[in-house]
Amino acid sequence: MNLIETSQEIENGSVSLGIELGSTRIKAVLVTSDFKTIATGSYVWENQLENNIWTYALEDVWAGIQQSYQQMAADVQSKYHCELTKLNAIGISAMMHGYLVFDQSGKQLVPFRTWRNNMTETAADALTALFGFNIPQRWSIAHLYQAILNEESHVTDIDYLTTLAGYVHWQLSGEKVLGVGDASGVFPIDETTGTYDETMLTKFNSLTNVQANPWRITDILPKPLPAGTVAGHLTAAGAALLDPSGQLAPGSVMAPPEGDAGTGMVATNSVRPRTGNISVGTSAFSMNVLDQPLSQVYRDIDIVTTPAGAPVAMVHVNNCSSDINAWSGIFNAFAQRLGVNLKPDQLYETLFLVSTKADPDAGNLVNYSYQSGENITKIKTGRPLFVRGENSKFTLPNFIQSQLYAAFAPLKIGMDILVNQEKIKTNVMIAQGGLFRTPVIEQQVLANALNIPITVMSTASEGGPWGMAVLAIYASRHQIGDNLADFLDRDVFVNPETMTLNPEPEGVAGYQQFIKNYQQSLQLEALAGETVKS
């Protein structure tokens, strides 16, 4: 599509918008009808630990969305010399899970409790036993039940419980709905009906301490919707929230709001059975679309769904790239003291390339990148920790390698359950996320860590908000009988640019030694969390 054709689409309101609220960045992506990105805007933010709860303020949500939109609109103006006044469709995605509750007047009852909090162990264990279905600590229902067990006073006033994406969608459209993929991290989904599991709803409502409240669970949860459903339209109030300048007209189709896991699946075309993808960032998770049920309930494997409602085995870990980012900041500060100013991509590429000279086992160094607790390894309170013995080979290449190895370690432990115990096989495993902006290095580390081929697409570092824009277009075009997988194959991923790396035997053996040391020394990380003050 040339400059004139793109300008015409903008003026005609044929362009669509995807917004994703990630852990460290809010990003807006504007795409044309042929799914090409033409403008972007972003806002950097960070969660805060307040009263021992990881949270974001809702004021920052709107400041970030508005700044991202403003930057994106300015990008349109500078490139195409026309104003952005109409949008064909809009989609909102955000970090999955967590706890956002409001009273009947729409007042927020308690600060947003994000996925990063592992404060619901008692509730999660009790609900897992009650349902015979794994309920992770970060799921919304675990947060709700823990608040009930804690006898928190706000619980009786709850009128609506939702996720971050669901909240933003509600404010823009007035609709209390969720994409089924995001909803599957709120309460278990029945694959056959595409909505919350009725048997489990009944069991939850039957609990004595739940019955003491004036609501029933179905009264306060958002309605799950599959991809392709029109989930309302942008209201006048919503348009003013999104674009305070007043230039944006209401009326745009709103797609069902999704979680970042769902948009990652769309962005990597991984929604068919036996496909999978891995997203890495502040947290990391793998999504494996199942062609058969798992043989048993695993506390470290979540059963969620694709945006179309198909079952997915999810391995979610709380910690991935935060410690790498922190160390990179230290190296950058040192470079600046030497008078060397590096752009972020240059900095990471320089550091990561050093790791190619490392020993396969990272020199027997041990590293934990735990900014917060980690459920898979049963660490309640995280503290980044680097340890070396007197016979360890403490070199810069090995140090950087240990950072990369540690970023993927909890994911490796969870994936081993699926690969070794359940014998789950995928025809393709695609990785995406900011770490893959530097080509080859992290991709090869991940392939060696998991001992499976890893594919990266050309859009690996920017997939989520673009994937939500694709879902927005799908909602505006959807016809009965046209499923999401066919739509992606036929219309979106016509000529995908990909690169696949296979595991290297020496690297696989080296990582196995690293993970052995890592697991044997976990008591050190647990002790650090207990003794080192935050």
TrEMBL record:
Pfam families per UniProt: FGGY_C, FGGY_N
A Gene Ontology biological process term: carbohydrate metabolic process
Domain Carbohydrate kinase FGGY C-terminal: 277-475
The keyword Transferase belongs to this UniProt entry's keyword annotation: yes
Carbohydrate kinase FGGY N-terminal domain sequence ranges: 16-240
Keywords: Kinase, Transferase
SUPFAM superfamilies recorded: Actin-like ATPase domain
Keyword Transferase: yes
Family: Belongs to the FGGY kinase family.
Name the record gives this protein: L-ribulokinase
Lineage: Bacteria, Bacillati, Bacillota, Bacilli, Lactobacillales
